[in-house]
Amino acid sequence: MSLAIFDLDNTLLSIDSDHAWGEFLLEQGAVDPVAYREANERFMADYNAGTLDMAAFLEMALKPLADNSPEQLSAWHQQFMASKIEPNILPKAEELLARHRTKGDTLLIITATNRFITAPIAERLGVDHLIAVNPEVKEGRYTGRVSGIPSYREGKVTRLEKWLEDQDLTMEGAWFYSDSHNDLPLLEIVEHPVAVDPDDTLREIAKERQWRIMSLRD
């Protein structure tokens, strides 16, 4: 039995849930239709290029959580799950999760997307353990700020190390599945790194290092 770690966006899902949530908010008329769309697209491009300013992105991404009531956010998220997430859960991803589950492995999703967006997705996928960006909450409402270290790039490793300590688990025999070169810091320290429908940069590195490359979309 080992630890099986999964990136979420464009790995288990065929979309980026953070970007899709931004599109959903635009459809609801909940954010500025021009400025927010431009920023959402720019930050997505920066992420793909490996140049994302995470602090600037989170300032934008978490503001709608602070601007709306928990009740409104919950209602929106239910719609979001039905319209954006459910159609983009990859059947082969669910099969992969099931294979690791059958082996008795501990399943963990680790993502740079915030917990408000991703906790219901992890629950839908039957994954009990989630490391995500934690939005700060005070007196029952989101503040628009981040709590702790964002789980992005090297931050994923830092957060994972703390999680392993809390869970009394080790990285021995661990797997990590990801599509993104942004996840190289974590891919480089697991025994079984797997590039899943990888971006061009990760594909080249995976070939050079003879990592397994697989698709969950074929």
TrEMBL record:
Q: Would I find Magnesium among this entry's keywords?
A: yes
**Stored InterPro entries:** HAD-like_SerB (IPR050582), HAD-like_sf (IPR036412), HAD_hydro_SerB1 (IPR006385), HAD_sf (IPR023214)
- Reaction equation(s) it catalyzes: L-histidinol phosphate + H2O = L-histidinol + phosphate
Q: What does this protein do?
A: Catalyzes the dephosphorylation of histidinol-phosphate to histidinol, the direct precursor of histidine.
Cite the annotated pathway.
Answer: Amino-acid biosynthesis; L-histidine biosynthesis; L-histidine from 5-phospho-alpha-D-ribose 1-diphosphate: step 8/9
Concerning its family, UniProt says: Belongs to the HAD-like hydrolase superfamily. SerB family.
Q: Which GO terms describe its molecular function?
A: histidinol-phosphatase activity; metal ion binding
Give the keywords, sorted. Answer: Hydrolase, Magnesium, Metal-binding
Q: Identify the Pfam families for this entry.
A: HAD
Q: Where is the signal peptide?
A: none
UniProt cross-references to Gene3D superfamilies, sorted A to Z: HAD superfamily/HAD-like (3.40.50.1000), SG protein - dephosphorylation function (1.20.1440.100)
Supply the source organism's classification: Bacteria, Pseudomonadati, Pseudomonadota, Gammaproteobacteria, Oceanospirillales
Q: What is this protein called?
A: Histidinol-phosphatase
The EC number(s) attached to this protein equal 3.1.3.15
Give coiled-coil spans as residue ranges.
none
